[in-house]
User: Fold this.
Amino acid sequence: MDEYLPVFRECTLFAGMNESDISSMLKCLGARASSFEKNSFVFMAGDPAASMGVVLSGGVHVVQEDFWGNRSIVTHVPRGGIFGEAFACAEETVYPVSAVASERSTVMRVDCGRIIKTCTTACGFHSRLIRNLLTTIAGKNVMLTQHLEHVTRHGTREKLMAYLSSQARAAGSGSFVIPFNRQELADYISADRSAMSNELCKMRDEGILRFRKNHFELL
Amino acid sequence: MDEYLPVFRECTLFAGMNESDISSMLKCLGARASSFEKNSFVFMAGDPAASMGVVLSGGVHVVQEDFWGNRSIVTHVPRGGIFGEAFACAEETVYPVSAVASERSTVMRVDCGRIIKTCTTACGFHSRLIRNLLTTIAGKNVMLTQHLEHVTRHGTREKLMAYLSSQARAAGSGSFVIPFNRQELADYISADRSAMSNELCKMRDEGILRFRKNHFELL
DNA sequence: CATAATCTGTTGTAATTACAACGGGGATGA
DNA sequence: TCATCCCCGTTGTAATTACAACAGATTATG
Assistant:
């Protein structure tokens, strides 16, 4: 397991811990790493939701299948990312989604009960681990709330204004750089790229914003 | 503060605790209740995000204002509900939203740092409190993820199928009752009521589902 | 029971959006 | 330098959705 220590250092779950702390903690938690072939299931929808996963190598797709069998990708989890933690930490009894290796991957699974319920005095960094878990989930929560805020607006222009406003707020300025190209931005706000591009230019012509590539300025 | 003990028993944050535990814990946390007139701010966007709120009486609107000053309501928090906890628990430094009393209200504010960072051996139920906080945020996380899944689908029919599928999964059956009327369902999936109603009937005529009022059956 | 109020389905029209196709940069690499 | 690829804007058309208005059904209320 120690071969993956560089990965753990990138993982928000272990923020503020050094390698020896992490190493001893993983033993304490009974964490086990397993390998998965491409397209094999790490867990399936309907399995008891007891553990969270940490991607040590490769990547994992979180997928959902609807009543009629249509499959869609919810998220992709890259190396160093965690998944399933919200279901395991909530009162959910089973996973409502499946996790599939998008390529040959190594995944570490940690029983969430061991993190939460164990006496927190057992090892020195256990409380830090819980805090990290809480911070990580809370951070995702904030991002999800914002995303929902942007997507639920009616009309392409309203979506853009909501998204750009939040970026300006985060930057503390009306002038900022976004982390998306046009196609990615369109996917994010759930709109068509060309329609969005069109709307952006209309807004520019009306004088409510300026942009050049990924740099935007609200007026 | 003890006059609000009945409210605390409904609050997920204090699940599994009895009234005397809650009472002593609130002292330990240094929680303070304050009154707010209708339309007065509990906190404003830009304030340092240190504490979470618990609505003891009345209700609170979480509102967001965009770059051009357009205000929109993100959520309404009723009596017994908590708000601001995700921002305070995440690494956010300031609130990106404001909280406004929707009527004359009483709100208890708890410093999140006191919950998370204090030595967990300080009082017996502190670890339970942290677990409740984690469970609550994780639960919201699951709901947000699902909602996003439903809203981002393109087309009214696809949204309906995604939502109804998730309800069927939750019920463990293709036959279930939804907690929305038509208007609420339309708001939830971010669509027009009449267009949605139309689409539902088309789907019924095509034989992929049946419904009567709030009872649905997928085929 | 009668009346009002609300919810739901239906229709037609206007507005918006998705889709496809294309051309102009700008970056990349041989 | 030239060729290639990718990103972005633009346009026209087809499809979808929003909006408004209305009628039947259901529920609430006195």
Q: What stands out?
A: Chain B has two domains: 2-143, 153-218. The mean pLDDT of chain B is 90. The radius of gyration of chain B is 21 Å.
